[in-house]
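Re: the request from the purification team.
They wanted to know what the chain is likely to look like in 3D before they choose a buffer screen. I agreed to run a prediction and write the result into the notebook, where they can find it.
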Amino acid sequence: MTGIAILGFLFFMILSIWAQSRVKSTFNKYSNVRPSSGMTGAQAAEYMLRNAGLADVRIERSGGFLTDHYDPRNKVIRLSPGVHDQASLSAVGVACHEAGHAIQDAQRYAPLVIRNMAVPIAGFGSNMGLYILIAGILFNFFQLALLGVILFGATVVFQVINLPVEFDATARAKRAMVDYGMVQAGPEEDGVAKVLNAAALTYVAATLAAIFTFLYYLMLVLGRR
């Protein structure tokens, strides 16, 4: 079991590194391709929100590289400099993806509502679950170790719920960008799709890794019973 676990963890570590590398390389490649609309990421997100009838969502410039996200509590889309300021296929794609999350929020998209509710539970489970699991193993306390596994399982549930949220936001972005003329059908549309599909791989990799880790912990605890 230990050998299989080591191979599994190595596999998912390599998969995660590969997925992150592909996101960066694809983003950088299409950061050099200007859309025919000439829109920056910030302009594209604003245009998508306006066409969806959302006037209460702000767009802010944040620091970092690919730190883009939507904050549902404050109704803010935060875009990194390479997305907010640039007129590129990568910038437009990422910005519209985040605008897709804002539209999900406005429409009370069920998986997003569930994901937002699960955030504090998943955060607690991720932080405390492993410590409780280790304590249960050290003190040979089966119920405590099992509780740690269950708490860590909240992270897995969050990751699974997160997949349809991310896929739907990407689908909304792809439709809106073409329908509203932000990118042209054909090569521009394909370029944006490659950027967003590469980003989706990181979520898939994270989910698979979380599931594997949960199963490993569960088998570890049950095997010691």
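For the purification team: Residues 2-224 form one domain.
Please add any questions underneath this entry.
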